[in-house]
Each structure stands twice: as C-alpha cells, then as structure tokens.
Amino acid sequence: MKTDMRKNYKSSWPKLIVRKWLNIPSGADEFQSDYDINDETDERLKSCSDQDYHPSVPENFSEGWLVESTGGIRPSRSMSESPPITGSLNLRMFVGTWNVGGKSPHEGLNIRDWLSSPAQADIYVLGFQEIVRLNAGNVLGAEDNEPASKWLSLIREALNSDQSDQELAQRGSNATEESSPSSLHLEQQASPKPRISFTDLLSMEDELGQEDFERLLSFNSNSGEEASPSPTSMSGSPTRQRFCLAASKQMVGLFLCVWVRTDLFKHISNLKVSCVGRGIMGYLGNKGSISISMTLHQTTFCFVCTHLASGEKEGDGIRRNSDVAEVLKRTRFSRSFRDVEQPFPPQSILDHDKVIWLGDLNYRLAPGCADTLDLLKKNDWQALLEKDQLKNEQRAGRVFSGWEEGKIYFAPTYKYLADSDDYVVQTSNSKVKRRIPAWCDRILWRGEGLEQVWYSRGECRFSDHRPVYSLFSVQMDSSNKLIPTARSCPPRFSSKSALSSACGAKVQAEELLVVPREQSCLDATSSF
After folding, report:
1. Are 164 and 158 a contacting pair, CB within 8 Å?
2. Which distant-in-sequence residues (6+ apart) come within 8 Å of 141 by Cβ?
3. 477 and 298 in contact (C-beta within 8 Å)?
4. How many helices, marked H, and strands, marked E, lie in the chain?
5. Nearest CA among 134, 141, 164 for reference residue 286
6. pLDDT beyond 90 at 456
7. What is the pLDDT of residue 202?
8. Cβ count near 86 (within 10 Å)
9. Between the CA of residue 227 and those of 42, 104, 118, 152, 251, what are the distances in Å?
10. Which phi and psi (to 5°) does residue 184 adopt?
11. 428 Cβ contact partners less than 8 Å away, ≥ 6 residues apart
12. pTM of the model
C-alpha cells in the first residue's frame, strides 16, 4: 500500500511541475471554509409536498448557478429570510501579518498575545508568509498542507477558548481598580452598563491620553460583551463557537485566512479567492499574492496577502513595485449567477468598497546610509523611517497611490537572530546574512469607512520576523434588502480536524434562494 502511494506521488510530480511552470490553474479558486456540509445532496432538492423550505430556482437560471463541493450546502431551518436590516453597522476588524520563516508551529506556541488588541474584533484577517520552506520541493512539487492545518487549529483555539474570556475579564478588572474580577462580573450581570459606541470612542481618542484611551476601550469591550447576548458570551458552551472560518487559502508558503463572528457568518456571500504567482520566472508561487473577496451585507471587502520580491540591493525596490502592479493587474475573481436586482460582484481588487493589503512587502531602508546603525542604537525610528523605501516610493507616486498606512511607532520587524531580541546586524560573528533592519511587514488599506485605531507589532521570537497587527473601525451600510442566508457554522469543533471537517469547495452559487413551502406552491399554481 505504501509503495503504491509513493509511486502515485512520484508520478504526479511531472504534472504538478508542468502545471506550475505553464501557470495552468489547478484548484486556484478553491478554498477551505466552515460551510455546513451535507453528504446527502438529494436533501437539497425538495418538492412542494416537503415540509419547511426548499431551493427555488429562478426563471433566469443559468449554468453558472452551480455548486461544486464534496457535498451540498445544507440549508438550515433558520434560512427563510433574515429580518430587514436598516441603517449602518460599525464593526471592528483585526488584521495581522507574520512571516514565520518556514517553521511549522509547535503545539505549545502561544499566539494569543499577537491576537490580543485593545478591544475584541468582529472579523479577524490573518496572513502568513513562509509557512513552509521555499525550497524546490515545495515550490515545484505537491503542496504541504500540514502547517496550514496546524495554524488553523491554533487560531481557532485562541479565538474560541475560555482563556480569551478570562484575559478580557482581567483587562476589565485592571480598568476598574476598586473592583475585584468577581464583584465586577456580578455587578455587570445584575445591572449591565451601557456600552459606548465605537464612533464615540474614536472621537475621545484625541482628548484622552493613550493609556486612558486604551483602558476605556478595553473596559467598553468587556461591558458590551457582558451586557449583550452576542456570540462572545456563548463561548462557555462546548457546542458553540464564537468565530467561524469564512475562508482560507494557501499558495506554497503564503497563507491567508478570514474569521468572522458566528452571527455575522450568515450575512457573508460571494466568497471567492484569486492567487497570483510572482516568484521564479514571474509566475511560481514562492512569491506573490492570495486575495479573498467577500460581501458582508451590502459591502464588498477584499483582503490581499502578499510576499513581494526580497533583497536590499539597488533595483530590488523596483522589482517590488512591479510585483504590486502585477498583483493588481492579474488578480481576477470569477463571476457567477446573480440575482437580477443585485449588482455584479467585484472582479478586481480595486472594484471593492474596502481593501486591506497585508504581508511581507519586503521594502527596506534606502541603501548607502552611513548613520543607519547609529539611529538603530538610539531607537530613533522616525529618523529611520525617512529612509523607508515604501514611504519614499509611495510619496513619489510609483506604488500604492491612493492607499493609506498608519503611523509607525514600533521598531523594525526584520531581521532578528533566532529566538532572540537582537538584530542580525548587531552580531558581528553571525553566520547568517547581515540584513539591515527594516519594516518589511506592513498593513495598508483603501476605501471609505475604514479607520485605523491601532498599529503595532508582537514580540514573539518564533521567527526572524516580528508579527504586525492592526485594529480597524469599519463603518458600513447594511440597508436595502432582505438578506437570504445559506450558511451556518458547524456546531462542534475538534482542534485535530480543523481542515478535515472543512470543505474544499468551489462555490459558484453564493446564495440558495429559499422560500416557504406555501409561497412556492402558490407561485407554481399561478404560473399555469
């Protein structure tokens, strides 16, 4: 049996190599997600005599309105129609990026510090670079999915564990120095405190000091969670999880995943992915981008995770600019069936309402600066940032024109000695490449209604990069229509089966139109 598997694996190599070298798509638009899968696909096809609900095929049915997956999307009983949603929503979105240096995460790796922020988010967008070593076997051969599975398990556990609640409660107790954690909890249960809106909090940022603002933001997050029956308050139940995996995608060492609050999951549609290789020969996946497109209520989002050309020689910055231009040019999301009353979903990155660009952009400090090491010793980050290639190229209009990035108040994120707080350049006898420290890992955005309220870095020594994260306030219009829902999160989770229970699905039907049985029969009668 093992011999046969080895033979099949070896025989598949030539096909994989040819596909990759000729840039032939092979599952590039497939992704992992927490869809509720039903192996019995015939349950999706019910007649008028069946109870509850059934899929209703519109008159302008086209071949694009298909679902390809290991099973059908199982409509839940709550899929009838969500109540009309009016007004605007103000959500919080956490965005993080980390180059993990080709290392697979060990079981005890603590990523909660990286995922922590002044206030708990509703959406988590996490991008990784080099989750596998960028050697010939991984670039040209079959994709190694094991590290991605481990990262998903760690993230799911961190976002849904009771320890996260305890940490939030601890922050709340620190914010109220006169109350103990237990008494604070009891007081909030007896008389929930009103929650300050996130917009009001942002307006108070300039009036308060940084420390006071952080404390208020943290306490507001805790009081809101205690006072409202949101998914965060259900985490104590073993059968419910607070966050679901909306989509994840891997391309060689690049990995991007999007997590959303459980109650938001049913409002997501038009999930699509697009990959662009910019590595060897300008097409292989050792460098490039993964983009995830989705619609939340009526707002379109695009998340772009990139690993651009490396190097600090003259001309390497131009190669990175070229990578950005090619990613923008070549990223395309397939179009599928749409309701005649709905607009076409976006096809390119810039077509979206809100776009987040994250990753190891690899922009360095301008070469030939003699005082770089002196400024590094003085921790004079603002003087060093004047030599930052990305900011200089952006000011000159050569890249990311119209994009925004928050102010940087943290130290360069690259390149560190292994398991150390020392930069490689500070060790004269180091055998590794003596790279000048730089802010390689960045988060940029464009689109109205996005406001960055936090931009910082983590301090985990797992790789030669430090992780970077940002917290955004997201204002979006949720008015207009009844939103049909065709998704629900799986009720249970096993950390060992994070990927095995997910669906490798190519979904071209964003929503199954579901109508009550009585209404469908009436429509059918009137058509004769």
Report:
1. yes
2. 13, 16, 17
3. yes
4. 14, 17
5. 134
6. yes
7. 55
8. 9
9. 42, 39, 18, 30, 42
10. -60, -40
11. none
12. 0.70
Helices marked H in 87-230 — which ranges?
112-115, 136-140, 146-160, 162-175, 181-190, 198-204, 210-227
In tens, the pLDDT along 376-407 reads 889 999 999 999 999 999 999 999 999 999 99
DSSP-assigned letter for residue 393: H
Contact of 343 with 364, CB cutoff 8 Å: no
Q: List pLDDT tens digits, range 11-65.
A: 455 555 556 555 555 566 788 888 653 333 333 333 333 344 343 444 443 333 3
Which amino acid, residue 394? Q
Q: What gap in Å lies between CA 25 and CA 391, rounded to an integer?
A: 34
- Cα angle value 176/182/185 (rounded, 5°): 70
* pLDDT tens, residue by residue, 177-235: 333 333 333 333 333 444 455 545 555 555 555 555 555 555 455 444 433 333 333 33
3-state secondary structure of 501: coil
pLDDT of 477 = 79
Q: What are the beta bridge partners of residue 257?
A: 126, 248
Q: What are the DSSP calls for 99-136, one per residue?
A: E-TTPPPPTT---HHHH--SS--SEEEEEEE-SS--SH
Question: Tokens representing 132?
Answer: 């596998």
